[in-house]
User: Which sequence fits this backbone?
């Protein structure tokens, strides 16, 4: 099917079992074998910037997600408006609750699934560096509350006003805020976590629609996961679930 | 509130988001996102703050009109004049 919405059969899932040794992460003594899966997902593209009139390409299809955000925000004052990273966070958290092999910790040679979803949000600190403070129970948080928490967290983290107690106990990490950065983000797992989901920059790309190439907003969602715990097939299903959830933002 | 007052408010609020930048030296025609390295979440925080400080409505569709300091001053001055009359 080729609507502006879910284009599941056009979803391209690229799995690369690299089996590569990952570079050592500060504080982690063990080396990790990772695999990455990547999902180019059309029709989910939204960000504050992409929706700015100066960046919208004429004739570009509006994704349901994008339309929903525009509609929802139109009648809201600024401090109640929603942005794409909140939709990304909620969909990742809901998918992580269902796909338990990506939510938890690898300790002493075995994986322990977490009973809650505490989502680490990777945020660039001004002047350099990266922090991934945790938001607790994101899967159960209403979208409005989640958006408010993320906005507060980004503001404080980027200004270096984060509490150390916020830096621990994430069960999975999301990196989605590098929206002026790269199209495809290859994140690195924060041990002892076992997965990191990356949202690349949203952008218009040529896409096959009804047998013809047309412009579509596309965001590439990537997954870095610990191969000792999960495999590429499970990763593809996990990513597909995130994509599916993003197609129905009103249910998030 | 004149243009200088509006500019001061904007510089203060941008300073809260990008405290390490010297906003006195900010090119008024520069794209704020590029010049100050701010993303959509930062930008929304900026809009929220300006909305509260000046009491003007800033619909999402008007965000492009705030993309440089000079344009933002012009836009907000117009908004304030409308709300006064």
Assistant:
């Amino acid at each position: 099917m080729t609507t502006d919405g879910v284009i599941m059969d056009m979803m391209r899932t690229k799995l690369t079992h690299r089996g590569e040794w990952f570079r050592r992460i500060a504080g982690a003594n063990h080396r990790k074998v990772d695999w990455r899966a990547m999902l180019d997902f059309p029709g989910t593209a939204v960000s504050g910037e992409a929706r700015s009139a100066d960046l919208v390409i004429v004739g570009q299809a509006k994704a349901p997600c994008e339309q929903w955000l525009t509609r929802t925000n139109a009648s809201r004052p600024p401090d109640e408006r929603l942005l794409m990273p909140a939709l990304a966070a909620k969909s990742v958290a809901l998918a992580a609750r269902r796909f338990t092999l990506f939510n938890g910790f690898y300790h002493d040679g075995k994986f322990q699934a977490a009973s809650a979803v505490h989502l680490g949000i990777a945020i660039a600190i001004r002047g350099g560096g990266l922090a991934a403070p945790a938001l607790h129970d994101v899967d159960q948080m209403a979208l409005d509350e989640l958006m408010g928490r993320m906005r507060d967290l980004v503001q404080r983290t980027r200004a270096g006003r984060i509490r150390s107690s916020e830096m621990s106990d994430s069960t999975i990490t999301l990196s989605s805020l590098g929206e002026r950065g790269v199209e495809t983000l290859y994140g690195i797992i924060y041990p002892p976590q076992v997965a990191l989901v990356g949202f690349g920059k949203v952008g218009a790309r040529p896409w096959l629609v009804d047998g013809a190439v047309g412009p579509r907003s596309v965001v590439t969602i990537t997954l870095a996961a610990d191969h000792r715990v999960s495999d590429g097939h499970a990763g593809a299903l996990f990513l597909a679930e995130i994509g599916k959830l993003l197609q129905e933002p009103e249910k998030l | 509130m004149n243009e200088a007052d509006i500019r001061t408010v904007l510089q203060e609020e941008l300073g809260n988001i990008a405290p390490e930048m010297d906003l006195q030296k900010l090119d008024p025609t520069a794209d704020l996102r590029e010049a100050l390295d701010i993303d959509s979440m930062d930008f929304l925080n900026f809009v929220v703050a300006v909305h509260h400080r000046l009491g003007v409505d800033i619909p999402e569709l008007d965000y492009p009109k705030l993309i440089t300091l000079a344009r933002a001053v012009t836009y907000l001055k117009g908004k304030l004049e409308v709300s006064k009359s």
About this structure: Chain A has one domain: 12-251.
